[in-house]
Each structure stands twice: as structure tokens, then as C-alpha cells.
Amino acid sequence: MTQLDRLSVYHWLNAWCIKPVGGALVRQEPEYILLALMGSPLKKIMLCSSEKEIFSVEEQVMVQHSVIINNMIEDGSYNHEESKIPLDCVDSKTLKKVIDYCTHHTHHHNDNQEDLEAWDAQFLNVDSNGLYDLLMAANYLEIRNLLDLIYGTIKNMIKGKKIDEIRRIFNIKDHGFTPEEEEQNRKEYPHFY
Amino acid sequence: MFSEGLGADESLCQDVQSLSVSKRLVRSVSQKLRKKNNRSAGEEDDDLKGVALRCLTLYSRGGGCKVGADTSDEFSDSNGRRRSSASEEGRGYKPICGPEETAVDCFSYGVRDIFWRRHSRKNSEIEELAANTRMHIFLPDDVLEMCLVRLPLTSLMNARLVCKKWRALTTTPRFLQMRREGSYQNPWLFLFGAVKDGFCSGEIHALDVSMNQWHRIDAEYLRGRFLFSVASIQDDIFIVGGCSSLTSFGRVDRSSFKTHKGVVVFSPLTKSWRKIPSMKYGRSVPILGVSEVSSDFPTCQGHQSRQDRRPRSRIGGVSDVYEDPHKLSMRRHCRSSFNESEASSVTSRRTYKFLRQKSDHSSSKGSRRVLLIAVGGLGSWDEPLDSGEIYDSVSNKWTEIQRLPFDFGVACSGIVCGKMFYVYSETDKLAAYDVERGFWISIQTSPFPPRVLEYYPKLVSSDGRLFMLSVSWCEGDGQIGRRNKAVRKLWELDLMYLTWTEVSVHPDAPMDWNAVFVADKSLIFGIEMFKIFGQVLDFFTVCDVSDMARWHHISRNHVTHELDASSCLTKTVAVLHL
Questions:
Q1: Structural domain contains residue A95
Q2: Tell me: the pLDDT tens digits for B439-494?
Q3: Do B155 and A165 lie within an 8 Å CB cutoff?
Q4: Smallest Cβ distance to B134: which of A151, A155, A169?
Q5: Domain count, chain A
Q6: Could you report the per-residue pLDDT of B9-29, keeping only the tens digit for each?
Q7: Residue A188: its chain B contacts at CB < 8 A?
Q8: B487/B57 Cα distance (integer angstroms)
């Protein structure tokens, strides 16, 4: 995607008769238009997934959320014209989701807490594999708030549940206690099982 | 690798699906029943609250209502009967608007409610199913740790029993440290002094404030003990002094009793009890102050000798003869006490030096040092004491400190704030004990509106600030035959200018003159218990001093309906961050 400056975007909008109202536009890549109107230059960076697929994201979005990418940009090793950041441990599907998360949180950080939480809950409505991949990606890219969110989700899978159920959910086949210990625990805390 | 994982998931999904239909049915039926019970309980609570409020205004007008912290238990019916009679009476009243919404037009509200509940239940069921079919293949240990550290205490205890690895992960000191620092802990209230069927049962009722769940802990050690004081620090609760009946063991019987010097420490996390050395004097309801200090905090305890030789005042004083009946004459006692105090000041100076040396060693180990101060209280003959003692966990000894100031009166409440131990007297005097330098300072503050005489103010410290809860008249001034209304207010003392400012007003009418107030971080909890309509009710409130100090109610009427009315007198509460 080529970089467009503010003037070009303004002309483009006028040509298509799109009236921006309060910064919210229902159009493809609204964040692109939004940022262009806000007057900041639209620097984009390229992220390359393990499947060699290239994703173009705004620099500001990724820098705000990912410590790793922030450090990479800051120490000047990234060249905007040609480089792309290879992320070999993140596949395309997960990378797309991560980018989605970061973009949403950058643009909607002024929303009220409930809406953000609802969006987050919807975002994490994935199966266990997807959650695991997201976790690994967030860990690698060091995205603090996404990590906290996932930790919280896994914590909720443990909180309030009985031990037998937790063992099932987390696939713990061998609990490692001796039969006597296990029996003792069951007798002492029957309501936990 | 990915496809294999997906396959396993899918087949599992299918299995669960086939089971799910019947499970869903069962679940929906049980949920329906549970929700129905919750709703009826909630209604009862509303009505009871309405009744309580209504009754309070009657009482203050001088109407005939049997309300108050009675020690005599006239309505000693079984639990079930008591509860049903209250709710029957409650239904006759229309609930007054409180902090909760009360239904005015109940029929239409109920119907709407059922529709909404059925719809939300379906959604939550789907979510539950989805959650149950998630199987985690493998989570690295550090991720597991980060998830487990966020668990509240009861779930953490639960997680420790899941498997050996989880237990190992959650019991390392590093994990506990991370949990403490990451603000994943919540306040827990421990209610002591429960009297059931006339016996000091030694039960501790613990309230997990965040989950609003009650837990009961049996404390053998406290059986038969009453009128002790509690103070909490870090993970421990100190239980100091108290009485126990000599004639009828276990009963709250003040006709013939023994006053304890013993101190015991209870640690709820490990459910362990340990004894520390006993105090010098037996005390019941001593005023306690506890603080954690650094290992090289200087404590000077040798300043008591000179002042002690003044003549004893009758109010709040202890007669020397009765202190030790073996001593033959007052003079001899004075002389010997002078010698003792000199000797003790010498030894305390020596111990002071010794302490510093010792602390140099212990500071390298990073051991915690706790100071526990006990002043006042009632002695072996129910006489008010003005002596004080301090316990140092490093030396593991009690040392006597300077007595309360001469005309201070009987101490009724005390709290540690910063490096000072503030004590309030029944005659509205405020004094502070400088722990570092070892002497009392009388504090002159700005006056504040006269309080209702029977309600002694309670000092609380939160966020390094000093507060007081005091009951005063807001309508009338206590004269009989006039309309009187009392209100409990939260005041703050400006420690620089020594002025009292009103912070907030407690929403409940002050029915319990022995209300307990404890603080945890920036929260102040209020616990009131009183007997009304033949039943003991408890009211828990909390306010956040860092945020407007508005009072909210928590956990109504869950534990005390089984208890005797004398529990209102003997109750005492400690709060811990667990």
C-alpha cells in the first residue's frame, strides 16, 4: 500500500462524498482515513508471518503495544522503505488477530470500560489452540495488555471450578499425589472436588 | 501437529455434544431452583432491612421496641423459628427505599425478571459448554504461574490440590511475593467472640469480602475465652488477654472469672496457632496497637521509672496492694518497685543495646519485626488499668511501658498510625505513645460536636491517616421527651494542625454501641451486631477513604442468626489482606 499524504486523502474523500462525522467512518480501513485526517503521517511497517505473508500495520499502533517492535524501531534497525520484521513463530491467522487487537485498542482507547471489555471478551472467544497461539505471540512480541487479558481468561477457567473439572480442562492426567495423599485431600476438602 | 490437535478437539466436542443435551436439562433445572431460592432470600433481606430501619425511628422516639445489645438472651428459640417469625413480620411492612432497588409493583417486575433470566441463562450455558470443551494441551510453567497468581485465596487453595506441580508452583516464596505485590489479594474479615447457645464456641467466622462468602474456622484454643482483643498484621492475628469463667466453663459468666495474660497468634493461611510469651498483667479488652517496623528500629523502654512513683489516682488506677498480695506494706512495695524499675531501666538499657546488636544480624536475614502494644483494659478484679506493655517479636518479650497520662481516664479505643500509638479515652482525651522514644504525649485537638454518651468513639487508621467514628446527635440532644436522632459520622484528624473534619456520614442508624471498625489499606470496614425482634442481625459496611468515603453495605445477615445476643458484646473483628 503506497503512502498517501493528508491532501490526497482529503481529495479522495471529497471525490467519494464521504463525510467524516466525529472521526467515525464506516468504510474499509477507517483507521487509515482517521489518522490521515488527524494530521499525523501514516507510517506503516511490514510484519512477516511464519507463512511468509506480509502484513502492513501502522507504526504507531504496533509501537504502542509491542515492546519488541518498539525497541526495534527505536534503535533504528528498521528501515521503512525496505525492511520487514520477520516473526517466525507467529502464523498468519494469529498475526492478523494480534494486529486486530492492537489496532482496535489504539483507536478505541477513549471508549468506556464496558465496551472495551465486551470487545475483549468477544475477541478471546476462540478455541484453545487459538488462545494458545495468541498467548505465544503476545509473549514473543511482549504485548502487556494482551498478555494480562489472556492470563485473566485462563485464570477464570480455574477460578470457582472443582478440582476434577480443572484436571479435565487442563488435561492433567497424572496429579502426582500418592493415593493416600489424594484420599486425605478429598476427605479434608470435599467441597473442592 | 496442528491438525492432530484439532482432531482431538473435534472428537471430544462430539462426545460432549452427545452428553450435553441431558446435562443442559439438568443444569437448567438446578439453576432454576437455585435462582428461585436466591430470589426469595433476597426478598427476605429487603424486607428485613425495611423492618430494621422502620423500627429504629420508633426507638429514637421512645417507642416500645426491644432493641440493643442485650446480654440476656430472652428469645432463645431455635434458628428456624426465629428466622420465620422475622420474615412474617417483615411482610407486613413495605420496604423503605434503601441503597437497593425495592419493587413497588411486584407482579409485573417478577414476570419481566423471569423472561430476562431465561434468556441470559441460555447464553451462559453456551458459554459454559464452550469453556468446558477447551482442553489445554500444554502451558509453560511461567504462564501457569502468571495465571495462578491472579486467583483469589479460596481458588488458590483449590488449585494447590489439583496436582503436585501446581502445588509446587504456588507455594514458593517468590510466588507469594508476586501475589502480594501485584494487588491480587483481597480483604478478609475475621469475626471473633461468637457465643452460641450460651457457650463461647471458639468459632471464627471469616468473610471473604471479594467473593462475599463466609467460612467457619474452629478454634479450640479460644473455647471458653471471651472479651479478648485482636490485632492483625501481615498474615497473622494476635489474640490478647480475655476472660474465662471459673465456675461454668465456656459460658459468658462474669460472676467468677479469670483474666488471662496469655497471647496467641493465629495465622489463617496455614490455620496454625502459636503462643507467644504472656503479658505481665492479665487484661480483658485491652487496647491494642500493632505495627511492623524495620529490624533496626530503636525502641526505648526505660522511661517509666520516675513517673511511676506518683500517688495512684482512684480513677483508672491500680492499687499496688492488690497487684501483689504477697508484699506486706505499701512502702515496702513502693521501695521495691522503685528498685525494680531502676533495675529494669538498667536492664532495659542493656536489652536496648543488646537488641541493636542482635538486629544487625537479623537484618541480614530480612526477618520481619512486629511490635505489639497493649494498654489499659480491665484487670483481674474488673478494675480499669492504666498500665501498658509492648511486645517485640525480635526479643520475644513483653516490656512494660510508661503508664497512661495522669488524668487521661479509661482508654476506650486505640490505633497505630505512623510511628505513634493513638489512644482515646472515655472522657474524650486523646494521647499518643511515641514508640521510638517511649513516652506519652497528650494531644489537644479542636473540639467537635458532643457525642452520645454511651457510644465511645472508635479510632481507625487507613492510608496513614487517622480517623474516628463517633456518634452524635443530629436532631435533639438526648433529652427524654423530645424527638432525638443520632448519627454515626466519620471524622479525620489533621495530624499537623490537630483539627477534626467530618469526612462522611454512616448510613445506618447507630444501634450497636459496640460497633467494630477496622481498616485495611484504604478501606474502613464497619461491623455492627444487635438484637432486634428476637434475632441477632449483623450489618457490614465498607467505605473507601481514597474515594469519597461513601459507605456501602456488604454481606447482610449471613452468620449471626445462629448466635446469642451476648455475641454483640463479645464480638471483635480483625481484617487481613489475603
A1: yes
A2: 999 999 988 778 888 899 999 999 999 999 999 988 777 777 777 888 999 999 99
A3: no
A4: A169
A5: 2
A6: 455 445 544 444 455 555 555
A7: none
A8: 12
